[in-house]
Amino acid sequence: MTTTEQHHFGPVAGEPRPESAPAYTASTLEATGVSAWFGSNKVLERISLTMEGGKVTALIGPSGCGKSTFLRILNRMHELVPIAALAGSVKLDGVDIYGPGLRVTETRLKIGMVFQRPNPFPSMTIAQNVLAGLRLSGTKVANPDALVQECLERAGLWREAKDRLNEPGAAISGGQQQRLCIARALAVRPKVLLMDEPCSALDPISTSVIEETIRELCHEVTIVIVTHNMQQAQRVSDNCALFLVDSEGAPGHIVEAGPTEQVFSHPLDPRTEDYVNGRFG
């Protein structure tokens, strides 16, 4: 992917960690001049954003301004839409994730994603759900039981699930299912974890647990989260980027990005101040 060329896509088929487990490495994800289309409809306009390693970046803004589309571009899901097109570059530790020879599956092992609604595999047990990504990618592990425990611990679910590992993943509560999906994403050792409104379908108690999990994980895995909850953005993120559209049908773009404290307390753009204070959106 280049900054001057559109790409049209077709369909694409806590206890201590065990000594043998590889360490997580927090990586930097950098988007430069990213524009996106669905057919002739331009939905993003030259998005440039650095998502720092080991930190949480929150993407905020009204519905329909391209936040989730941008998140999917970071995971190479945009290209699943036959009429999708893209320009710009997305680099993980300096390597373009859309570069020649880099397979989609390889990218998604490095950049995991947790969706708005929990989506555990209903026919799999809790333990099988955790290991699902590894099995789908053909990755073998020496001690799967230890990995299941480690990932459930990191997702804040081990205490609740340790005696239920052979029960179906769909048999637990919504908040637990979302943490199970986080554990599943962590099992493949991602460098970045993308989260698309992960708490929007959850109750306040489950939301609090997920937020605590995010803060614990961000020291090892770079996290990018889309949220419409301004209080949540302030609680969990280190940096924020505000997406807006100038008029109906116009593409989304970033109005302001920076440290969360600055964006909320001392914004540089009056539109940012209006949005974070609930005067529109």
Kindly list the characteristics that best describe this protein.
single chain, 281 residues, alpha/beta, Rossmann fold, six-stranded mixed beta sheet, five-stranded antiparallel beta sheet, 10 helices, 11 strands, 32% helix
Mind explaining what this structure looks like?
With 281 residues, the protein is of the alpha/beta class. The chain has a domain at 21-118 and 194-276: Rossmann fold. The chain contains ten helices and eleven strands. Strand 5 (84-92) and strand 6 (95-96) form a beta hairpin. Residues 1-22 have low confidence and may be disordered.
Using the CA coordinates, give the radius of gyration: 19 Å
What would you say the CATH architecture of the domain at 21-118 and 194-276 is? 3-Layer(aba) Sandwich
Would you state the CATH class of the domain at 21-118 and 194-276?
Alpha Beta
Mean pLDDT: 88
Element order, helices and strands? EEEEHEEHEHHHHEHEHEEHH
- Model regions low in confidence, pLDDT < 50 over at least 5 residues: 1-22
Q: CATH homologous superfamily of the domain at 21-118 and 194-276? A: P-loop containing nucleotide triphosphate hydrolases
Query: How many angstroms separate the termini?
Result: 33 Å
For the secondary structure, the number of strands is 11
- Give the amount of beta strand, in percent: 15-25%
Fraction of residues in helix: 25-40%
Biggest beta-sheet profile = 6 strands, mixed
Query: In order across it, which strands form the biggest sheet?
Result: 7-8-9-4-10-11
Structural class: alpha/beta
DSSP helical segment count: 10
Q: Which topology of the domain at 21-118 and 194-276 does CATH recognise? A: Rossmann fold
What sort of overall outline do the alpha carbons produce when their principal axes are compared? globular
